[in-house]
């Protein structure tokens, strides 16, 4: 086990303040100390959402078309595992190291990624006992009314890429991801070796005959986990 999930999603957007308000409404909590450029949010599990202007030079330049997530930082459960993964990646690509020990690289399918030691915090949930699959005791009971959701974890991120099969092979062979599901002609659902999520990343076929596919590398969505059955994506 090494990669234990998404440590940070770094977005590039046209209007930082507007997107910040969106994530406020979405239920994320802003960090008490904000970066000098852009915005930062931290989820209860300790993962982060970072918002930068699309022209911020701090964003890694890449082939990703359009706005959205521009870099994925994967959490690693220890320094030795991080160094082992970095050694393997260094055989055929350039790595950039930050002073905090984060290493950055570009995946074969063009998405900027990083690895950072991630002490993921356990998240406590109290799902509604009368509103879960298969439960019949909800008969004649009121369900728990929720005024709003507060995301607790980042579950997965999705990119459309012209060669999604090659993208899958990169995630499998270089970062030890495992295949969860394959949707012929449409995408590969793969999970990090240290997670119990169905998938940590979905690589969609950018040439699939479905709405939103442009044939180019682009961000599609990220998925956040909340208290119980409901899931939220943006
Ligand atoms: Fe999703």
From TrEMBL:
- Keywords assigned by UniProt? Plasmid
> What's the domain of life for this entry?
Bacteria
Cell wall biogenesis/degradation listed as a keyword: no
Listed name of the protein: Glyoxalase family protein
Q: List, alphabetically, the Pfam families matched.
A: Glyoxalase
Please report the stretch or stretches of sequence annotated as the VOC domain.
153-234
């Amino acid at each position: 086990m090494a990669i234990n999930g998404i440590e940070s999603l770094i977005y590039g957007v046209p209007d930082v303040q507007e997107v910040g308000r969106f994530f406020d409404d979405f239920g994320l909590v802003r960090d008490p100390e904000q970066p000098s450029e852009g915005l930062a949010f931290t989820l209860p599990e300790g993962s982060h959402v970072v918002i930068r202007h699309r022209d911020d030079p701090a964003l890694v330049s890449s082939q990703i078309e359009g706005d959205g997530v521009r870099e994925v930082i994967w959490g690693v459960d220890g320094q030795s595992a991080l160094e082992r993964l970095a050694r393997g990646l260094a055989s055929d690509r350039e790595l950039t190291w930050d002073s905090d020990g984060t290493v950055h690289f570009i995946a074969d399918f063009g998405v900027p990624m990083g690895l950072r030691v991630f002490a993921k915090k356990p998240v406590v949930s109290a799902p509604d006992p009368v509103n879960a699959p298969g439960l019949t005791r909800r008969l004649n009971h009121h369900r728990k009314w929720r005024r709003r959701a507060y995301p607790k974890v980042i579950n997965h991120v999705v990119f459309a890429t012209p060669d999604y099969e090659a993208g899958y092979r990169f995630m499998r062979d270089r970062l030890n991801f495992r295949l969860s599901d394959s949707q012929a002609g449409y995408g590969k659902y793969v999970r990090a070796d240290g997670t119990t999520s169905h998938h940590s990343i979905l690589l969609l076929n950018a040439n699939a005959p479905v709405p939103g596919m442009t044939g180019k590398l682009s961000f599609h969505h990220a998925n956040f986990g909340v208290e119980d059955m409901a899931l939220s994506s943006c």
